[in-house]
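User: Structure please.
Assistant: Input sequence and predicted structure:
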Amino acid sequence: MENVFVSQHPLIKHKLAKLRDKDTEPKKFRELIREIAGLLTYEATLDLELSPFEVTTPLEKMSGSILKEKIGLVPILRAGLGMVEGVWELMPSSEVWHIGIYRDEKTLKPVEYYNKLPIEPRVSVCLILDPMLATGGSATATIDVLKRWGVKRIKFVGIIGAPEGIKAVHDEHPDVPVFLADVDRQLNEHGYILPGLGDAGDRQFGTG
Protein backbone atom coordinates (compact mmCIF):
# COMPACT_ATOMS: atom_id res chain seq x y z
CA MET A 1 0.00 0.00 0.00
CA GLU A 2 1.38 3.35 -1.06
CA ASN A 3 2.51 5.74 1.67
CA VAL A 4 1.93 3.09 4.38
CA PHE A 5 4.93 1.98 6.41
CA VAL A 6 4.57 -1.22 8.42
CA SER A 7 7.45 -1.86 10.78
CA GLN A 8 9.41 -5.08 10.45
CA HIS A 9 11.43 -4.46 13.61
CA PRO A 10 11.73 -7.61 15.77
CA LEU A 11 11.24 -5.64 19.00
CA ILE A 12 7.97 -4.20 17.75
CA LYS A 13 6.73 -7.63 16.64
CA HIS A 14 7.65 -9.09 20.04
CA LYS A 15 5.89 -6.35 22.00
CA LEU A 16 2.86 -6.38 19.70
CA ALA A 17 2.27 -10.09 20.33
CA LYS A 18 2.19 -9.39 24.08
CA LEU A 19 -0.07 -6.38 23.53
CA ARG A 20 -2.63 -8.50 21.67
CA ASP A 21 -2.80 -11.15 24.41
CA LYS A 22 -6.20 -10.97 26.16
CA ASP A 23 -4.53 -11.80 29.50
CA THR A 24 -2.20 -8.77 29.44
CA GLU A 25 -3.15 -6.59 32.42
CA PRO A 26 -3.79 -2.81 32.02
CA LYS A 27 -0.47 -1.78 33.63
CA LYS A 28 1.56 -3.96 31.27
CA PHE A 29 -0.69 -2.97 28.37
CA ARG A 30 0.07 0.71 28.99
CA GLU A 31 3.80 -0.02 29.16
CA LEU A 32 3.70 -1.85 25.84
CA ILE A 33 1.69 0.94 24.16
CA ARG A 34 4.29 3.46 25.35
CA GLU A 35 7.25 1.34 24.20
CA ILE A 36 5.80 0.54 20.77
CA ALA A 37 4.90 4.20 20.25
CA GLY A 38 8.51 5.20 20.86
CA LEU A 39 9.87 2.59 18.46
CA LEU A 40 7.39 3.56 15.74
CA THR A 41 8.19 7.25 16.19
CA TYR A 42 11.87 6.49 15.65
CA GLU A 43 10.92 5.15 12.20
CA ALA A 44 8.39 7.90 11.47
CA THR A 45 10.89 10.72 12.10
CA LEU A 46 13.75 9.58 9.90
CA ASP A 47 13.19 12.50 7.52
CA LEU A 48 13.07 15.35 10.04
CA GLU A 49 15.24 18.30 9.06
CA LEU A 50 18.36 19.19 11.03
CA SER A 51 20.29 22.38 11.72
CA PRO A 52 24.05 22.55 12.34
CA PHE A 53 25.00 22.98 15.98
CA GLU A 54 28.42 23.62 17.49
CA VAL A 55 29.02 21.55 20.60
CA THR A 56 31.95 21.56 22.99
CA THR A 57 32.90 18.11 24.25
CA PRO A 58 35.17 17.67 27.31
CA LEU A 59 38.07 17.58 24.82
CA GLU A 60 37.31 19.96 21.94
CA LYS A 61 34.70 21.72 19.82
CA MET A 62 32.92 19.92 17.01
CA SER A 63 29.99 20.31 14.61
CA GLY A 64 26.80 18.46 15.46
CA SER A 65 23.14 18.66 14.53
CA ILE A 66 19.88 19.47 16.28
CA LEU A 67 16.28 19.23 15.14
CA LYS A 68 15.31 22.17 12.98
CA GLU A 69 11.57 21.53 12.96
CA LYS A 70 9.21 21.98 15.87
CA ILE A 71 7.09 18.89 16.48
CA GLY A 72 3.48 18.71 17.61
CA LEU A 73 1.90 15.58 19.05
CA VAL A 74 -1.84 15.16 18.59
CA PRO A 75 -3.22 12.16 20.48
CA ILE A 76 -6.78 11.30 19.56
CA LEU A 77 -8.61 11.06 22.89
CA ARG A 78 -8.66 8.88 24.76
CA ALA A 79 -6.69 5.88 23.50
CA GLY A 80 -4.00 8.07 21.91
CA LEU A 81 -2.98 9.43 25.33
CA GLY A 82 -1.08 6.24 26.09
CA MET A 83 1.27 6.82 23.15
CA VAL A 84 2.36 10.33 24.17
CA GLU A 85 4.90 9.36 26.85
CA GLY A 86 6.70 7.02 24.47
CA VAL A 87 7.15 9.82 21.95
CA TRP A 88 7.99 12.43 24.59
CA GLU A 89 10.87 10.29 25.81
CA LEU A 90 12.45 10.76 22.37
CA MET A 91 11.40 14.38 21.80
CA PRO A 92 10.73 16.03 25.18
CA SER A 93 10.37 19.49 23.64
CA SER A 94 7.40 18.44 21.52
CA GLU A 95 4.13 20.30 22.04
CA VAL A 96 1.02 18.25 22.76
CA TRP A 97 -2.39 19.29 21.46
CA HIS A 98 -5.55 17.35 22.26
CA ILE A 99 -8.39 16.72 19.85
CA GLY A 100 -11.38 14.83 21.20
CA ILE A 101 -13.17 12.66 18.66
CA TYR A 102 -15.36 9.67 19.40
CA ARG A 103 -16.96 7.15 17.10
CA ASP A 104 -20.74 7.02 17.13
CA GLU A 105 -21.47 3.34 17.79
CA LYS A 106 -24.55 3.37 15.55
CA THR A 107 -23.23 5.23 12.53
CA LEU A 108 -19.49 4.51 13.07
CA LYS A 109 -18.95 8.16 12.09
CA PRO A 110 -16.55 10.48 13.99
CA VAL A 111 -17.96 13.13 16.31
CA GLU A 112 -15.65 15.98 17.43
CA TYR A 113 -16.25 17.10 21.02
CA TYR A 114 -13.02 18.82 22.09
CA ASN A 115 -10.52 21.09 20.35
CA LYS A 116 -8.23 23.62 22.09
CA LEU A 117 -5.82 24.39 19.26
CA PRO A 118 -4.34 27.92 19.22
CA ILE A 119 -5.36 30.33 16.48
CA GLU A 120 -2.20 29.59 14.48
CA PRO A 121 0.08 26.53 14.55
CA ARG A 122 3.38 26.84 16.39
CA VAL A 123 4.71 23.57 14.93
CA SER A 124 5.80 22.55 11.46
CA VAL A 125 5.22 18.78 11.78
CA CYS A 126 2.33 17.03 13.55
CA LEU A 127 2.24 13.37 14.54
CA ILE A 128 -1.30 12.07 15.05
CA LEU A 129 -1.26 9.33 17.68
CA ASP A 130 -3.93 6.65 17.89
CA PRO A 131 -3.32 2.95 18.60
CA MET A 132 -6.07 1.71 16.27
CA LEU A 133 -6.74 2.82 12.69
CA ALA A 134 -10.10 1.08 12.27
CA THR A 135 -12.72 2.83 10.11
CA GLY A 136 -10.35 5.76 9.56
CA GLY A 137 -13.05 8.26 10.47
CA SER A 138 -11.32 9.75 13.53
CA ALA A 139 -7.95 9.93 11.76
CA THR A 140 -9.45 11.59 8.69
CA ALA A 141 -11.39 14.10 10.80
CA THR A 142 -8.24 14.95 12.79
CA ILE A 143 -6.23 15.48 9.60
CA ASP A 144 -9.02 17.77 8.35
CA VAL A 145 -8.75 19.84 11.55
CA LEU A 146 -4.95 20.09 11.37
CA LYS A 147 -4.95 21.11 7.71
CA ARG A 148 -7.54 23.80 8.37
CA TRP A 149 -5.32 24.92 11.25
CA GLY A 150 -2.46 25.36 8.78
CA VAL A 151 -0.10 22.45 9.51
CA LYS A 152 1.87 21.58 6.39
CA ARG A 153 3.33 18.19 7.35
CA ILE A 154 1.20 15.55 9.05
CA LYS A 155 1.94 11.92 9.82
CA PHE A 156 -0.26 9.27 11.38
CA VAL A 157 1.41 6.95 13.89
CA GLY A 158 -0.69 3.99 15.02
CA ILE A 159 -0.16 0.44 16.20
CA ILE A 160 -2.68 -1.68 14.31
CA GLY A 161 -4.50 -0.69 11.14
CA ALA A 162 -7.33 -2.23 9.12
CA PRO A 163 -7.31 -2.07 5.31
CA GLU A 164 -10.62 -0.19 5.43
CA GLY A 165 -9.18 2.52 7.69
CA ILE A 166 -6.02 2.92 5.67
CA LYS A 167 -8.05 3.28 2.47
CA ALA A 168 -10.37 5.83 4.09
CA VAL A 169 -7.44 8.00 5.18
CA HIS A 170 -5.67 7.85 1.85
CA ASP A 171 -8.83 8.41 -0.19
CA GLU A 172 -9.16 11.78 1.58
CA HIS A 173 -5.51 12.54 2.37
CA PRO A 174 -3.09 10.62 0.12
CA ASP A 175 -0.27 12.96 1.18
CA VAL A 176 -0.34 11.79 4.82
CA PRO A 177 2.01 8.85 5.52
CA VAL A 178 0.75 6.13 7.87
CA PHE A 179 3.16 4.34 10.21
CA LEU A 180 1.95 1.11 11.83
CA ALA A 181 3.22 -1.92 13.71
CA ASP A 182 0.88 -4.21 11.75
CA VAL A 183 -2.03 -4.31 9.31
CA ASP A 184 -4.78 -6.74 10.27
CA ARG A 185 -7.34 -8.62 8.20
CA GLN A 186 -10.57 -6.59 8.36
CA LEU A 187 -13.23 -4.87 10.46
CA ASN A 188 -16.16 -6.69 11.98
CA GLU A 189 -19.76 -5.43 11.85
CA HIS A 190 -19.14 -3.26 14.92
CA GLY A 191 -16.09 -1.55 13.44
CA TYR A 192 -13.53 -3.45 15.51
CA ILE A 193 -10.28 -4.64 13.92
CA LEU A 194 -9.88 -8.42 13.46
CA PRO A 195 -7.91 -10.09 14.93
CA GLY A 196 -6.92 -6.82 16.63
CA LEU A 197 -6.54 -6.51 20.39
CA GLY A 198 -9.97 -5.36 21.54
CA ASP A 199 -10.70 -1.80 22.67
CA ALA A 200 -7.35 -0.07 23.19
CA GLY A 201 -8.88 2.62 25.43
CA ASP A 202 -10.66 0.16 27.71
CA ARG A 203 -7.59 -2.06 27.98
CA GLN A 204 -5.32 0.86 28.88
CA PHE A 205 -7.59 2.39 31.47
CA GLY A 206 -9.19 -0.75 32.89
CA THR A 207 -12.72 0.16 31.80
CA GLY A 208 -15.35 -1.70 29.84
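The first helix runs from residue 10 to 20.
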